[in-house]
Amino acid sequence: MPLEDGDPVRRRGQRVDGKVSGTPQPEGTGDTPAADGSRMEVTAEGWEPGPALGDGDVTPGGAPPRQEEALMAELSELVQKVVRSSSWWERHGVDISILASSFLLLPAGFLCLRSAQAIPFLAGVLTLGVVHHTLTVKGSHLASHNALTESKSWGKVWAVFFIELCSAFTVEQATYNHVKIHHGYTNVIGLGDSSSWKLPFLNRYVYMFIAPLAVPIITPLVALDLLRNVEWKAALRTLCCMFLGLYCHYWLLLHVSGFQSPWSALLCMLLTRSLLAHPYIHVNIFQHIGLPMFAADRKPKRIHLMSLGVLNLPRNALLDWSFGHSLISCHVEHHLFPSLSDNMCLKIKPVVSQYLKQKKLPYNEDTYTSRLRLFLRRYEELMVHAPPITELVGIQ
What is the pTM of this model? Predict the structure, then answer.
C-alpha cells in the first residue's frame, strides 16, 4: 500500500528521539494466565497503525508467508510457557524494585552535593545522574509499553509520571513514535528506520562525543514543538508536568544541596542529566542503523524483520541498571515481545536465541566498542547518506 502524505502513519512531524501510546491494539496479543492466577498480555507482534502495510510483505528466499507466521506462532508459544511459569516478582517486581531503589537514592544524592570536598560531591553527581537515567530511560521505556503493571489505567499514570514529569517529554508523541512507528516498522525506510537520530550536518566526532551533552536541553525543546500535534488538554498537562519536574530538580539543588546561585544549580542539572547521554545516543543508533533496511512495500514478515534489523549488546552492569535489559542485551527479545518487562526479556533470552539459531535465522550480537569503531569508520555511509534498501533474495 503506498504511503501518501495524508496517511496518519506518515506524520513526520510526530517523530521524536525516544526509545520510549495511546492504547493501540497490538496484533497477536493474547491473555496469558500467570503463575499466581493473574493474567497478562504477551505481545508477539508489533503495533501496526491504520491499514496494515503487510500487504506487500515478502519473505527471504521466497519462503511461504504462512511458514513465517508459523515460526512466529511457535516462538510465541515457547515464550508464553516461560511467562506462565513466572511469578509476579519476575514479571514486574524486579524492575519495580530497581525504580523504587532509585527513588530512595535521591536524598543521598542531593545531600552529597552539599559537601565542599571533591569525592562526596562527585558521588552526588554520579548518584543523581544514574538515578535520572534510570527513571527517564528505563522507567519511561517500560511505561510506554505498559510493562510495569498489568493494569492499563495504572499504566497511563506511570507513563505520564515517567515520560512527562521525569523526562520532560509528551506521552502521546513519545509513545506514538516509539510504540507504533519504531516497533511497528522497525528498519522500514521513512518510518521506523531510526532516521530521527541522524544529524547529517555534524561531523562524526561532534555527533558521537559532544552533541550528546545537549540532550537535556534539546529534549524539552522538541517536546514543546510537538505539543502543536496534541489536544490542548494533553498539551496543558504536559506543560504542567514538565515545569513541575524541572522546577523540583532546580529547587532541591538550591534548598537541599545548598547551591548559592541559579546558574550553578542549572549547570549541575545539565551535568547530572547528561551523565549517561553518550551511551544513550550510542545505544539507540548501534542497535539498528547499519543493519538491513527495507521499503515499506517490501519488508519481510515480523520474525525476519526483527531478527535481521535488531542487534543485542553485551550485558553491562551500569547500563543494565540505568537503561534496562530490553535496551541493551535483550533488544532482539524486546522487539519480538515488546510488552514484556526488562527482567522477563532477560529470562526469555535463552529461549529466543536458541530458537532463532535453530531455525537458521539471524541473531545479531556485537560489542559496544566494536560498534563504536564501526560508526566512526563508516559515519558518512551510515549517518549522513540515505541507507540502501536491502534486497530480500538470498537472505537466510
Answer: 0.84
Give the residue from 246, 219, 300, 223 showing the smallest Cα distance to 46: 300
Distance CA(40)–CA(393), nearest Å, equals 38
Q: Helix crossing, 277-286 with 215-226: angle to 10°?
A: 60
- Kindly list the distances between the CA atom of residue 112 and the CA atoms of 150, 247, 268, 318, 369, in Å, as whole numbers in the listed order: 37, 20, 13, 20, 32
Residue 60 DSSP label: G
Contacts of 61 (CB under 8 A, 6+ apart): 392, 393, 394, 395, 396
CA distances from 215 to 56, 197, 271 (A): 37, 11, 11
Greater model confidence, 247 or 55: 247
DSSP SS3 for 334: helix
Q: C-alpha distances in angstroms, 118 versus 115, 123, 125, 267, 269? A: 8, 8, 11, 16, 17
**How does pLDDT run across 244-287, given as a tens digit for each residue?**
999 999 999 999 999 999 999 999 999 999 999 999 999 999 99
Q: What's the pLDDT band for 294 if we cut at 50, 70, 90?
A: very high
31: left (phi over 0), alpha (psi -120 to 50) or beta: beta
Amino acid at 361: L
Q: What is the pLDDT of residues 315-360, one digit of tens each?
A: 999 999 999 999 999 999 999 999 999 999 999 999 999 999 999 9
Alpha carbon dihedral 354, 358, 364, 365, in 10-degree steps, equals 40
Q: Three cell numbers at 116?
A: 565542599
Beta strands in 11-51 (DSSP E): 29-33, 39-43
Eight-state DSSP code of residue 364: E
* Cell numbers describing residue 346: 532477560
Helix H or strand E segment including 96: helix 94-112
Report the distance separating Cα 396 and Cα 359, nearest Å.
10
Q: Mean pLDDT across the stretch 49-71?
A: 57
Pairwise CA distance, residues 190 & 12, whole Å: 9
Supply φ then ψ for residue 288, to 5 degrees: -140, -50
At 16, the pLDDT band (50, 70, 90 cuts) reads very low
Residue-level pLDDT at 390: 82
